[in-house]
Amino acid sequence: MIDKAKSWFRLWFAKVWKLRGGGLYAVGWAATFIYLEVTTVLGEIAGADGVVDFFTNQIIEFLFRFMSDSIANMIQAFMWPAYVVSWQPPVGAIALGVAYVVFAKFIKHHITAWLFPDGEEAESQT
């Protein structure tokens, strides 16, 4: 089960990596989106009167609300650099700049090798 989840996550993240340019922006987008989705689901479950109530009375409403929240989360995830920059100015902007340099120099090639073990994508990203 865990291996299947890892495989699914790797495939999803590889698509995000390619779509978002294969850099710190892609990692930030994915991390922000996952964080927002998890907090949305946990908030919905916490807001229910109980687990049974959540599954019996609110599941349909939850699914529609979750889909609309997912779209909002996706849009918020696109803006993750703005959140970092606005965090304790000017520290956030400096941290973002340092993160881009450190990521490109030390981290990107490890992620690319993990996502694309055949090396095909790793060669095109360098």
Describe the protein.
- With 126 residues, the chain is mostly helical.
- It is built from seven helices and no strands.
- Helix 2 packs antiparallel against helix 4.
- The longest helix is centred in the C-terminal third of the chain and has 25 residues.
- It starts with a helix and ends with a helix.
- The C terminus is likely disordered.
Kindly summarize this structure in a few lines.
With 126 residues, the chain is mainly alpha-helical.
Uncertain regions spanning at least 5 consecutive residues:
122-126
Global mean pLDDT: 84
Helix- and strand-based class? mainly alpha
Helix content: over 70%
Q: How far is it from the N-terminal to the C-terminal residue, by CA?
A: 34 Å
Oligomer: single chain
Main sheet overview: none
- From the alpha carbons, calculate the radius of gyration and give it in angstroms: 18 Å
How many strands in all?
A: 0
Number of helices: 7
- Helix and strand element order: HHHHHHH
| Share of β-strand residues | under 5%
Shape: globular
Question: How are the SSEs ordered, and which strands pair?
Answer:
Layout lengths: L1 H18 L4 H24 L3 H7 L1 H20 L1 H7 L4 H25 L4 H6 L1
Helix pairs in contact: 1-2, 2-4, 3-4, 5-6
